[in-house]
Amino acid sequence: MIQHIKNLENYTNEERTNYIIDFLSTRNIEFKIQPFRYRVLKGRNIIVNHFCKRSCKNLLLLTAHTNKYFSSPGANDNASGVAVLLGIIENLLAREDGKKLGIKIIFFDHEDGLAYLDGSTYYVKHTDTSNISFVLNLDMVGAGNTVAMNPRLNELKHNKYIKRLLESLINLKIEHYSFNLPPLMCEDHMPFEKAKVSALSLNLMPKEDMEYIISRSKASLPSLLKESFVIRFNREKHPMFTMQHRHNDLDTSEFVSENSLSLCEKIVMQIIDFPKK
């Protein structure tokens, strides 16, 4: 998976999308392109239908955004999420039951930069979401071995996929924490959440980053706003390793770990292969 990231970090956003299309085409994977223009930007979502029948209900959506932030190499944010989904596609292709799994995989364009969740927002507004049971969005999953999830899971624990995810994290002995995103930050689960679809974004990070997030869980809104401005304009001074390397020239494959990518892949595959009771 790390090789995908090394390839993608050298590409423009359009070339990143074409890279995924070539990957799918050479493997005869069923997919479609969803071109869109939302606000001022044109983009392309890639929707992989290969692992679900047309009549599938209770769909599991696995998603990641393809674009990077302006001139940043975009290795962890978010070539890492793309690489894990490409690895999962390879795993599912080897299965005899692959087309019966009820899984749809979507690569969203224009999550950040001049955009604000443009690809995922367009998809939600132009799709019947009533057959979606759960959306798991992968974003920044290339560093660390603890799992952060947002939003907080208080209202999602009734969902069977959330139950699978939490039990898998416990079985794998992975430290995890759920939280609501601070002001000025966004991820692609949010348009689904707004449409009343159960959805969350999953991130990997070093333990020290997780501890910092937990320490800030009761911070005041003015304090969080101040911190958000620091993240946006002076990332190198942020105490979190993942934030120091977000949206800047430091977001390279040098700081991405194959172990983290494999751990994320294992988590998702455990959700898919959760033992029936």
Overview of this protein structure:
With 277 residues, the protein is an alpha/beta fold. It has one domain (2-272): 3-Layer(aba) Sandwich (Aminopeptidase), CATH 3.40.630. The protein contains ten helices and eight strands. Strands 1-2-4-3-5-8-6-7 form an eight-stranded mixed beta sheet, sandwiched between helices. Helix 1 packs across helix 3 (75-93) and helix 5 crosses helix 10 (258-272).
Write the element-wise H/E pattern from the N-terminal end onward.
HHEEEHEHEEHEHEHHHH
CATH-wise, what's the superfamily? Zn peptidases
Derived structural class:
alpha/beta
Tally of helical segments: 10
Task: State the share of residues found in helices, binned by percent.
Answer: 25-40%
Shape: globular
**Strand arrangement across the biggest beta sheet:** 1-2-4-3-5-8-6-7
Measured between the Cα atoms of the first and last residue, the distance is: 32 Å
What would CATH call the architecture? Answer: 3-Layer(aba) Sandwich
Let me know the average pLDDT. 92
Low-confidence stretches: none
Strand content: 15-25%
Main sheet overview: 8 strands, mixed
How many E strands? 8
Number of domains: 1
CATH class assignment: Alpha Beta
What is the C-alpha radius of gyration, as a whole number of Å? 17 Å
Please sum up the structure shown:
Helices cover about 40% and strands about 20% of the residues. With about 280 residues, the protein is of the alpha/beta class.
